[in-house]
Structure formats: C-alpha cells, structure tokens
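Apologies for my clumsy wording, but can you show me some protein sequence, whichever is easiest, together with the matching structure tokens, please?
=====
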Amino acid sequence: MVEKTRSLVCFSSIELGEPIIDKNKVRSKITLNFFNKKSINFTLIHSYQNNIKEDHLPILRLANIMPLLNYGLFSEEFFFDFPLSSYDLKIINELNNIFSRDIFVNKILRRRTNYIISKYIPSEENVSIDMAQPKAKIKVLDEISDNKLGIDIDFNRFGILSSGGKESLLTYGLLKELGGKVYPLYVNESGGHWRTALSAYRYHVKNDKNTQRVWTNVDRFYLFMLDNLDFIRSNHRKIQADTYPVRLCIFPFYVFLLLPIFIDNQIGNLLIGSEFDDLRSKPEYLGIPHYYGIYDQHQDYDILMNSWFEKRTSGIVQWSAVRNISGLIVERILVDRYPNLARYQRSCHSCHFENNNIVPCGKCSKCMGVLLFLLANGSDPKIMAFRKEDINSFHNRVKTSNLRLDQDEKNQSFYLIGAKGNIPKVKSVEHVEKIHINCETCDISYIPNYIRDELLKILVNILQVFVF
C-alpha cells in the first residue's frame, strides 16, 4: 500500500514580535508554534552603521516580515504582534501569494533539491491550484493609517543593492559615468555569501564615501527554519547544493532592510541589478502560474514596489539599469568599459581566501557561467582571479545541463566560443547581443525619464536596438 503524502504544514503559527531599536541595532523575536503546543524562538538581528530612528519602525516591521513569507505554505497562521497600515498589509498578502506559488512549483514540484523527504512530495496527478496557495492567514495587532514615510527625496541620488556581482558593478559604473550621486549599499548576511561581496565592498569603502553596509543574521534564521521543517532531511547541513532548499525571493528583504538608508539620505532611486530574463509569457506548471523562482528579478516586482512607494513614500522609484540587456552583454560592457570594477566581481558559490584576497573556486555552476561569458566575449578570466588551469580546462569541464542560464544566452555564448571539448556546435541567437524592449519584461518606460536617454545612449553606442 502506497503511503499517503504527508502535509507540508509544520506550524500552527509563526509569530513575529515588534522590532526593538537600540541605537544602531534592531532585534525582533520570531516564535514557531507547533501543533503539540511546543514553541521555539529565534532572534532576528540587524546592525546598521548609524543609529536607527524610531520613525523607521514601520519599515523595519516590513523588513522582518519578508523572510517569513518564504514559509506561508508551512504554517496555518502568521501573527505580527504590531500594527500595520492597509497598504503594508496589501503588499504582504500579495507577496505571500506569489512566494507560495513559486516555492510550491519551483522547490516542491519542479527543481527540488534532495533536501526534501520524498513522502512529503505530492504526486503530480494529485496536484491542484489550491495546493500552491499559502496556508498561513495573516493576523496583525491592529490596522493603522497609511502615513508617508520620509519627506524629501533627490532624484539625482541612486542607491544600488550591491553584491559584488556583474549587474550591480555595471550599474554603479554606468550611473557614475552619467554623473549621479551613487550609494553602493550592501547587505552582509551572516553566512558565507558575504565572501562574494567582500572584494567589491572593500573597493567601494576605499573609493566611495557613500558606501554603507547592514549586517544581518538572516542566514542563521534560514538554517533555523530548516532545522524545524518536518519535511527537510535532518542532515541538511551536510548536503551540498547550488540552490536554496526552500526559500526563493531575497530582494524584498534587502529592499526594506535598506530603506532607512534611502530615506535618511533622500535617495530617490532604488536600483536592483536585474538583467534581461526571457519570460515573455507568464509560465504555468500544472495550471499554477509562477516566475521560475525569479519573481524578485522580474519587472512585475518593480511595478508592485513602485505602487507601494507611491503610497507610502515621497516617490522613490525602483528600477534596473541593465534589464534590457542579457548577462553576456552585462559582462562584456563591465569588462570592456569598467575594468577597474570588473576585477572585483566574485560570482561563486564557494569563494575562499588566498593571501587575504577572495578568489573564486572556478568549478561551481556560478563560476562556470562567468567563465562562459568571459570566454565568449574574448575576455581574460584572470581579471577576476580565475586560475589558469580552470580557464584552460573549461571547454572540457563544462556540462551544458549544469549551466543555470537562459537557453538562448547559453547558446549564443557557445556559438561565440565555437565547438570544442564539451561545447556543442550551435546556431547564433542574435537577439542575445542586442537591447531588448518588451512591455511585459523590459519596458524602457520604467527607466526614469530624467536619465533614460543618457543611459540608452551608452547602450546604443555599444549595441543595436532589438524590439520584440
């Protein structure tokens, strides 16, 4: 007899306490309540470089809610022990729905990792759309009015969510060239991810006084959650994988965590390094709409946030300077136009120290993708500290199925390199090397008009316009 699939709901409720501000530190208690009446706590901590104002409390509440929305499928209730405004509640409910659908499709059904115990995975013939809806009902202490957060903003100030990746580094280079006052803003997660950002962060601290960093222990919270999810293998800390077991969207947390810096510095533009990703149609899996797990890199996320910004701030605008170009072209422009920035790019799952320098492993899926782009563009990967042996052996080591890239982008890169080793012979996919304009995924009207022409002028001088 086949065992019935077990429920993914692990908690009767997840509670989040009011953020407590102590100078530059913020603490919130998270409580997991189990069905056997047992409960367990975790304290979420953030540390800013400057003292945090009490006026930022509404933003900090939202920042601390964002990581919890990864678990809307696994709890019967979210209880937030503080008041929220109507528009804050609206965006939380919307994100709870989107996160849950994407996690159900892309972590439970599609590209699941071996972290999940098989008896908890539903058979696809039994899947219904309702199964992807969040189980957690949202309850708050009280509903309050929607007051404006912050007053004045300056549209010539640009805050970049910086990570040491090619997109944020190119965005920085473009906006500095265009004369904007640019703020490289980093989120230092407590885990090993910080190594990928450290080289770029050190450069920015040394060269740009507007650089700021927020430390957070959110990575430890995610591990805490894995320890307490019934359907996750108990040895999950020993499993190596290049993707997260359950969670997906990380930018919403970063955005709200950094918003106090935007408001204090009157920064009018919030830049996320989202490049062109070919989702020209909204995909469905077994009738469930989703975003392939990259909702927070999609234009729809910018639209949602800008609607919230319009209601709750003085008009901060969230957008991407590189949404109209592919990752291959992002890498090309970064290396060719801003080599002084490119040398600090570290896109690797296993960066490590060598003589106090951060170097990439050269072997993980992220490294293989970067090497593919660099070699396709005729660039020397040693600019990013790749070892000679990893560069020379790339053609024989690459496995096309392990490169987590858009298929067109992958094939155009293979075409530019040419068939050798494990690189297949493919046809050119010309649109990859052009500027994309598409109202659903990369509408140029979402680039603010006060910088749009100047930004596109740089891109047009390098590429050609391609219209879908």
